Amino acid sequence: MTTQTFEALAKSRFSARDFLNKPVDSKILETILQTAAQSPSWSNTRGYMLAIAQGERKQQLIDAYTQKCKAMFRTKDATLSEEERLIAQKMSQPDGDFPVMAPYPQSLKERSARLGLALYKHLNIDRKDFPARNAHTLRNFQAFGAPVMGFVLVRRDFLPFAALDAGIMLQTLLLAAKEQGVDSCPLGVLATWRSPLDEVFDIPTEYALITGFALGYASEAHVNAFRAEHPPIELAQEK
User: Minimum mean pLDDT among 66-80, 178-192, 205-219: which range?
Assistant: First the structure.
């Protein structure tokens, strides 16, 4: 592969937010995973694992995430009784391994805010249009209709190195998918709740859920014309 070819591949990958109802062939998925296995690792420890859901398992996960996400929305519904609000709060209480909704450092928060504003502008969603914003948020937890729903787990007892390795592996996986004509979207929000995953997969307790992702074929929906900005990598200044 030439430098120009790899550069084109890397630039062609984007976060798809609407997928066709078209399955990913098992051989293609196997090739993607085999390529991802070529990623480097800290002393070759590879302290991570993947959970891949399709078909009925994926639907079971989507149903569970949808229920929790809608309960989260209900906690802000002023028309609910106190009892109903408490039930919604209990159902939507995050049980993930990491505080996904923790405050961002200010400089990083600004970057995230710019992305959100740009995406909502692209979708013509007003910042005060909460029904439309909630509908888009819910789509995240439904993997945007993708046929493959993936989860990345890392060894709790080998952080931060297991997380570093998992990130390298995931980027390799996403690029390998694009090479096969398969689109993708990282889904960090899936780490908000761990319990839906444990209902479907037998995952050792020493592994923590750090992110999810979607694989499939992007539709022609308007949302898929959106591209996030990719500013230059920040370099440390010499003394």
Answer: 66-80
CB count within 10 Å of CB 207 equals 20
Task: Quickly count: other Cβ atoms within 10 Å of residue 176's Cβ.
Answer: 22
Q: Please give the model's pTM, rounded to 2 decimal places.
A: 0.94
pLDDT at 64 over 70: yes
Task: Say how far apart CA 159 and CA 204 lie, in whole Å.
Answer: 16
The CA-based diameter of the chain, rounded to the nearest angstrom, is 63
- Which residues, other chains included, contact 212 with Cβ-Cβ below 8 Å and sequence gap of 6+? 143, 149, 150, 151, 152, 186, 187, 188, 189, 190, 191
Mean pLDDT of 93-100: 96
Backbone region of residue 237 per phi and psi (left: phi > 0; alpha: psi in -120 to 50; beta: other values):
beta
- What strands lie across the sheet with 48-53, from one edge to the other? 48-53, 148-155, 207-216, 183-187
Q: Are 21 and 144 in contact (CB under 8 A)?
A: no
Which domains are delineated in the chain?
A: 13-225 (3.40.109.10)
Compute the average pLDDT of residues 50-71. Answer: 98
Task: Please name the residue that has the structure tokens 């509908």.
Answer: 135
What pLDDT digit, counting tens, does each position of 143-156 carry?
Answer: 999 999 999 999 99
Phi, psi of 57 (to 5 degrees): -65, -40
